[in-house]
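Q: What structure does this chain adopt?
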Amino acid sequence: RSFRADHIRLALEVRHDPHGETPVRTRGWSSGTAISLWEALGLYPAAAVRHVLCTDIERDGALTGPNLDLYREAVRRFPRIAWQASGGVRDAADLTALAEIGATAAGSGKALLEELLSRGHHVRALQRDTAKLAARAGLEVRAVDVLTDGGFVGALDGVDAVVSAYNAGWANPR
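A:
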């Protein structure tokens, strides 16, 4: 089976350093490479890459604001790519700033969680590894393997809304 380029999203994680270098990280961010984000994109035919999810791993989950310089440079170098920014988003102002520089989408999972909790909502988080998110006032964390039949469905009893941030992992999620 073949897929058109507009159905494929290339996901690259980088550690943007103070010198403006963007080395790509691999293996769940644990391994660095000598190849930059720009060089990695150059390995693909221009028509083959239309969507890129780019995570600045120094800011992911930190709520410190997105790396606007990184995404501004990405849009400047590769204007035909639809850039999805990930890492650091705090609020709607960050999303607006990303849109203004040309990012077409942004990941905002932690910002959404914090916003829901700050407005007094009760949030039930379902995770394979509950050590990655500590329970606190308004936040209930349950261990659930979404790949197990029925485990996911039963955990939704009594829930009014569902927001999915499912990630199958870097290799086999089991």
